[in-house]
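Design request, tokens follow.
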């Protein structure tokens, strides 16, 4: 499942502090928006604590999520839904205890809306009046119910919420951290290709109409969508902090029919990655593969985003770009993304169909490869060895020092202040997107990246150390990482971008 997102937070035109917070963890496919309250920086503390603790809890019990994602039968949908509820309850307890022991923060709390995507299922947990909308086709649905005084009165009195005094609209009936126990609304639903979600604070949905929200959710690029939403809320007065997080689930690639499979078999036999595989073994691979057709100029992979599939060009040509600069043009037989079969990783380049014609790509995703490991382990092993060999050749091409017969000089390592575990120096990368920042080193295998929330830097407590692969954000996104030059490995005249 390919997921893209756009996120933005803004202090608004009236407030001097931003108590909103959001978090994106690409590895977990976790998306959270919180709106803190409490005064004297307490709202910022509450919302920051909530997003951190929710993620921390899910990471600690990641096995439940992975089990359901792989479908191994040990955990089901109800187990994951119970886990997201537990994560919110844990955040509630931490915030309440902090307020109990600190008089200046007593009574602080936060709203919270959480979206977790696992396999073909979406999970939502919700407290307060932040909202989650879903756009499916042309229909936009509000998935959460506001836990607000106005909403309760409107439902009880059977009148529109707009009829009540504006002074009542900020009063909420449930919040994370105010009391020792909180009631959490949770639900699960089946995802469909093309689903789009908006998580937002009341500074957004309270400023613009549902019609305006629906119109802007139709904008193609999630980044453009969140920018327009925030600007519209500011244009309407910007009386509160404004946060918008748009999550886009990609459309499903078309399955391969029988006639097409025969034509693809002939083509794949000439691809070096598949040398050593018999026709029967190639058929087993094609059973789990999908073919995706790209319009001229359409993007397949975004630089810095998760590369979740091995891709083989089977028609047309693709353009490879690094930091917006075209570095290669590849055609049928070229392949990239082998690392997706071995571990989760980020793409070092943007890959799109050439601007002059459509293209088609054969894709084998990580979950499909895991299924192949179960049903045809010998075939999966051969493919994994071939993928590792291809990556090794590319690594040598990227690192002339590695191909030098002289002894390799290793850079010294430095220990972090928070842990005795050494880490290598390297470029700045991130796994989790939040609104408090610190620099980290180059990620190890399975590390993912995310842009940084443009929220104000948070006050004490300091953001917890989430590991060497996490970058915590300040007031603007960091510059794009500068990866090494892209090597192209000849495959019958075609190259392989990583």
């Amino acid at each position: 499942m390919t997921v893209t997102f756009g996120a933005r937070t803004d202090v608004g035109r009236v407030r001097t502090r931003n108590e909103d917070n959001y978090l994106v963890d690409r590895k977990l496919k976790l998306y959270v928006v919180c709106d803190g309250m409490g005064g004297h920086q307490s709202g910022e503390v509450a919302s920051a604590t909530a997003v951190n603790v929710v993620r921390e809890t899910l990471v600690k019990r990641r096995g439940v999520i992975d089990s359901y994602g792989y479908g191994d039968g040990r955990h089901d949908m109800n187990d994951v839904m119970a886990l997201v509820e537990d994560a919110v309850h844990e955040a509630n307890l931490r915030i309440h205890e902090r307020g109990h022991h600190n008089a200046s923060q007593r009574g602080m709390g936060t709203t919270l809306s959480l979206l977790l995507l696992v396999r073909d299922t979406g999970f939502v947990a919700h407290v307060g009046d932040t909202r989650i909308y879903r756009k499916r086709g042309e229909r936009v649905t509000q998935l959460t119910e506001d836990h607000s005084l106005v909403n309760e009165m409107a439902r009880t009195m059977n009148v529109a919420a707009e009829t009540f005094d504006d002074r009542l609209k900020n009063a909420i009936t449930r919040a994370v951290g105010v009391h020792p126990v909180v009631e959490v609304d949770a639900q699960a639903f089946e995802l469909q290709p093309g689903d789009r979600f908006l998580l937002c604070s009341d500074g957004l949905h309270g400023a613009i109409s549902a019609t305006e929200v629906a119109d802007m959710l139709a904008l193609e690029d999630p980044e453009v969508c969140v920018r327009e939403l925030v600007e519209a809320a500011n244009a309407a007065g910007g009386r509160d902090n404004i946060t918008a997080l748009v999550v886009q689930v990609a459309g499903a690639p078309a399955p391969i029919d029988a006639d097409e499979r025969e034509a693809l078999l002939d083509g794949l036999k000439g691809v070096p990655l598949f040398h050593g595989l018999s026709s029967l073994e190639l058929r087993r691979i094609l059973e789990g593969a999908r073919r995706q057709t790209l319009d001229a100029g359409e993007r397949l992979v975004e630089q810095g985003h998760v590369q979740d599939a091995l891709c083989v060009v089977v028609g047309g040509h693709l353009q490879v770009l690094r930091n917006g600069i075209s570095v290669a043009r590849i055609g049928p037989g070229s392949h990239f993304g082998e690392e997706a079969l071995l571990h989760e990783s980020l793409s070092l380049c943007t890959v799109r169909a050439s601007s002059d014609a459509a293209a088609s790509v054969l894709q084998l995703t990580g979950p499909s490869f895991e299924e192949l490991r179960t049903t045809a382990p010998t075939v999966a092993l051969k493919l994994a060895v071939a993928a590792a060999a291809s990556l090794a050749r590319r690594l040598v091409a990227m690192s002339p020092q590695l191909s030098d017969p002289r002894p390799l000089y290793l850079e010294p390592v430095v220990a972090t202040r928070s842990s005795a575990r050494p880490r290598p120096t390297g470029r700045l990368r991130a796994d989790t997107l939040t609104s408090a920042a610190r620099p980290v080193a180059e990620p190890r295998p399975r590390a993912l990246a995310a842009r940084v929330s443009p929220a104000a830097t948070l006050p004490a407590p300091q953001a917890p150390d989430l590991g060497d692969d996490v970058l915590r954000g300040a007031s603007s996104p960091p510059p794009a990482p500068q990866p090494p030059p892209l090597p192209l490995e000849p495959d019958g005249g075609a190259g392989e971008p990583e």
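Comment from the thread starter after seeing the answer: thanks! The chain is about 30% helix and 25% strand.
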